[in-house]
Amino acid sequence: MPEPSTTAASLLKLFPFLVEVDADLCIVRTGPLLQRVCPEIAAGRPLSEVFSRHGAVAELPSFGELRQHLHHVAIMRQRAAPHRLFKGEWFGAGAAETLHFLGWPWITELSELTRLGISLDDLPAHNPLADLLMLLQTSNNTLADTQALANTLRDRSRKLEESNRKLQGEAELIRARDEAERASRAKSTFLANMSHELRTPMNAILGMTALARREATSPRLLDQLGKIEQASNHLLAVISDILDLSKIEADKLTLEPLDFRLGSIIDDCTAVLGERAHAKRLPFRTEMPTALSSLSVRADPVRLRQILINLASNAIKFTDAGEVVVRVVAESESATGIGLRFEVEDTGIGISFADQQRIFNSFEQADASMTRKYGGTGLGLAICKRLVERMGGEIGLSSHAGQGSCFWFRICLARSSAETVCPSAVFLPSAESRILAEHAGKRVLLVEDEPINQEITSNLLEEAGLIVDVAGDGVEAVALAEEKAYALILMDMQLPRMNGLDASRSIRQSRLNAQTPILAMTANVFEEDRQACLAVGMNAHLPKPATPEALFEAVLAQLSA
Amino acid sequence: MYGLVNRALEEMICTRHGAETWDRIKQKAGVDIDIFVRMEAYPDDITYRLVGAACEELAVTPADTLCDFGRHWVRYTGQAGYGALFDAAGSTVQEVLANLDDLHSRIGLLYPQLQPPSFKCTEVTDDALVLHYYSTRQGLAPMVIGLLHGIGEHFGKRLEIAQLTSKAQGDDHDSFRIHLA
């Protein structure tokens, strides 16, 4: 290779990828970096052998054409490595019969430079190739960071949306819950008020009637008063049924589990209904294995008794001949519980298939003529069904018109190991006489604002030999309790000036009556009311209206305690 | 400092101690930035607070943290796409250290707000040299020591480094005698 001229030598330094060609487009010399990186592009070889033109036309231009297009963009592709492009321009140094391609490899990544074995020192200081590649790299980094930020923002937005939806859902749940609680409180208040408003006058009617019957001597008057009592009791039954059903449907009915002997329920049924069946000359039978009869269980005996008495009472009502049988069998047993099937079977009028489909609905009797002929509220079976379902059981019947019916229900009861047995619903006789015998002369305080109820209750208590002081409201009651020591205080709950709960709380702080038994007498019969009475130190709760027998029983229990 | 520095710190902590530790460090430092953009310039204070919180969280001294970081920085920048720049800066420890100012000049084109330190090499032999470190910032000499170890590891050399002068002790700059083992 001839020695390069000074110009050519400078060009070699400044453009280390230089290619010099002669008029035959044969390579005269190449730059030092091109020699290192592409040694096959060597002097003596035709340009067209090692390069092709990049673009639509692959053929390289002629020497003459190149001379005419000096300083235009020229891009050549290396034949031995077709992915490698060289971008530059053709340069003619004066009148020399050679042309110089002043170009650089087209590199888009810094790492490619390294792969080619080119270090920064190899490049002339003026050349920005490496710096631009670094700038490109940095831009790519920034793009990646921006993308990452956008992704993070998107994630955050999504999480925020989810959080908002959840919060909205929770807010709605809270609103719905608050609304449900308000509705529930409204129902409770309504039921409590209705219970009080309905039962209080009934208390007055029954009480006055009972008093009048005690003093009546004329048979005609006795008969009339008996009819009033009968009608009042029926009305009370209707009121109780309606309130019960309302309570159940408002989800306010609470079962009160107690330990009792299973057989006591059947005994109570017999005691309550035996007379009625006897009056119709109708045999009333019970069938219960001895093992079951003596079994101790834990359940709500009041509600269980209510269901059985309802079903058996219907059976007696709708049967004129034949018999009524109450049956209890065990269906399954475990260590902790027992599955029982109760049946009430009769030989009465039966129920048609069509009527069977709706017999458990409220206010449905088999047909309208039933109400006229047999009476009844139409609510009993509906209440039975709901009570059985509250106990987790099921109820049904089988019947044929004219051939009798068998009403059944199945429930599981928990076994009880307790030895205590709850008192039966059948009241012991002569509580009044026992008060007269054992507690005559004792002073009791009656706190009641209704004049009629005051008269009824105080008369009854005085006839039992007790001395009765009457207070018309809570303030008067507290004042009296500060003056005298009483053997018993009977306290109504809804009183003017100071209610029964507050009065009881105050009396519990008094010097003379801190330990005096306080018996709550009230038409409010809900569990929460009962609990409220016990919480302020009252000793027992007697629902109004109470029969004289129930009153005497409760008074005797407190005086004897 | 550019986001690149804080990202390198984040990567070091996350790799060794987990993302939750990094979150705690950020919380402790009062830094509420999800992603550091590498090309963005952040106040120096953020980096100092992060380093301080990291020392507290990991129960290590600032000098140890900075030294570890310096070592990590060499590897991190190589992986972040600047390895070629480093490779182009020289093929021996001495060459790279001699070209550090040029390297920073080039980097300054890409990072306009860069306030780079300056380095000078004296008493250069085949296996030793003295490196002089000049910076407007305080307290980063331990990081330089870490960087030097990182550069040595890149070339497969173990460096023995002794600090000769210290700005922290009142000298006008920091200098280190380096012996290549």
State the domain count of chain A. Answer: 4
Estimate the mean pLDDT confidence of chain A. Answer: 86
- Arithmetic mean pLDDT of chain B: 90
The largest pleated sheet of chain A is described as:
7 strands, mixed
Q: Report the largest inter-chain contact.
A: A-B, 22 and 22 residues
Radius of gyration of chain A: 53 Å
In what order do the strands lie side by side in the largest sheet of chain B?
1-2-4-3
Describe the global form of chain B.
Answer: globular
Any low-confidence stretches of chain B, pLDDT <50, length ≥5?
none
Computed CA radius of gyration of chain B, to the nearest angstrom = 16 Å
* Total DSSP helices of chain A: 19
Give the overall form of chain A. elongated
Q: Uncertain spans of chain A, ≥5 residues at pLDDT below 50?
A: 425-429
Helical amount of chain A: 40-55%
| Oligomer description | heterodimer
Reported by name, the CATH topology of the largest domain in chain A is Heat Shock Protein 90
Q: What is the overall number of helices of chain B?
A: 7
CATH-defined architecture of the largest domain in chain A: 2-Layer Sandwich
Short description:
Chain A contains 19 helices and 18 strands. Chain A has helices at residues 6-14, 32-37, 47-50, 63-68, 110-115, 129-215, 219-249, 262-279, 290-293, 301-317, 353-356, 368-374, 380-390, 431-439, 451-463, 474-483, 500-507, 527-535, 548-560; strands at residues 19-21, 27-30, 51-53, 73-78, 85-91, 99-105, 258-261, 284-287, 296-299, 324-333, 337-346, 394-399, 405-415, 443-447, 467-471, 488-492, 518-522, 540-543.
